[in-house]
Amino acid sequence: MELRLIGYWAAIADGETPRRRRTLWHARDRTRKRAAPQESLRAGAEGSAVLPNAMEFVDGAVSRQERNAVASYLDAGVMVRVAAGLSPCRICGTANGCGERSDGAYLWPDGLAHYVREHSVRLPADFVQHALKGQAMDSDGRELSIESIERMPLDRRWWIAATGGVPPPVPEQAPTATQVSILLPDGTEADWSCEIRALNPFADLRGRQVSRMVLRSRQSDSWTGDGNDVFECLTDLRRQLEPIGYRVCCNGARRNAWPWPFARGGVSTVVLIGEDVQEAGKEPQGHPMLPTLDPAVPSEIVSLEEQFAWLASHGHPV
User: Fold this and answer.
1) CA angle 88-92-95, nearest 5°?
2) How many Cα atoms are found within 13 Å in the side-chain-facing hemisphere of 6?
3) Distance between CA 292 and CA 268 in Å, rounded?
4) Secondary structure of the chain: what % helix, strand, coil (to 5)?
5) Which residues contact 168 (CB under 8 A, 6 or more apart)?
6) Looking at residue 71, what is its pLDDT?
7) In angstroms, how far is CA 258 from the centroid of its own chain?
8) Which residues of 39-68 are buried (b: 16+ CB within 10 A; e: fewer)?
9) What CA–CA distances, in Å, run from 51 to 38, 134, 224?
10) SS3 215
């Protein structure tokens, strides 16, 4: 299930003020523009996905009761992340939030409730019905947590289409082929083919994509690992291979290899934690960052159990 983005508006252009934007808007033929919103919503180059203009969705016919109900639902969303600066309202210019909220189905800017409550902005019907029914992800008893939301792939195309625009095409996900060194049960090493493919074209809040990694031996035996990034795929494969005597000789299997969340991004990077880093959550600045699947000598790798125990003891559990 993808997390739909909603409520992200076109920025105010350089030299433009909210008052001038409103003046120009009220000088237009609003009837004509409502009949063909895509003409006024999209000011970018042909084929580009431009965010909608919030003024185009001001609708005085929305009842106060509905506005308050939808705005309250938006205010009740889980705060997923916070930015350093405040975002201005694209209609009145007031400082309007600095974070993002979610209910497990949609992701929206913290200030979206302001547009609905104060400016009578009408959101897409699918979301309005969803909000009025209170259909949060935890309605069936599942816990709604920041971690669970962060792991969900983001659908950025839905919002563009729902506001009359043409979403960008979904890029084709070509598999990545490489080789991985394997320590065999008899103590010898062999290079196995490795193919990595994204199973979902949409990345999550950390830039990760649900992926699948397939290892094939020279005898054409194969093992498959799934996860939100390459490190998780590797972990899944090691859980299958290590009990039967195979070890993956790569950086991701080193004792102190930690998938730093801000370095993962769907890319295969690990940080080598030093012995002196024992403070939980401390960023390992200055420590080496290495490609997860690049080869490591057998003496440098350990079992998955030993690696995770060492990382946990040094304040960086996986």
Assistant:
1) 30
2) 27
3) 5
4) 30, 20, 45
5) 48, 49, 157, 160
6) 96
7) 20
8) ebbbeeeeeebebbbbbbbbeeebeeebbe
9) 11, 26, 39
10) strand
CA distance 236 to 199: 15
Whether residue 167 has pLDDT greater than 80: no
pLDDT for the residue numbered 211: 84
Q: Which helix (H) or strand (E) holds 81?
A: strand 78-82
- The closest alpha carbon to 305, from 223, 261, 239, belongs to 239
Report if pTM > 0.90: no
Neighbours of 95 (CB within 10 A): 12
Q: Say if strands 211-216 and 257-258 run parallel, antiparallel, or are unpaired.
A: unpaired
State mean pLDDT over 1-10. Answer: 89
pLDDT in tens, 186-228: 999 999 999 998 876 666 666 667 788 999 999 999 999 988 7
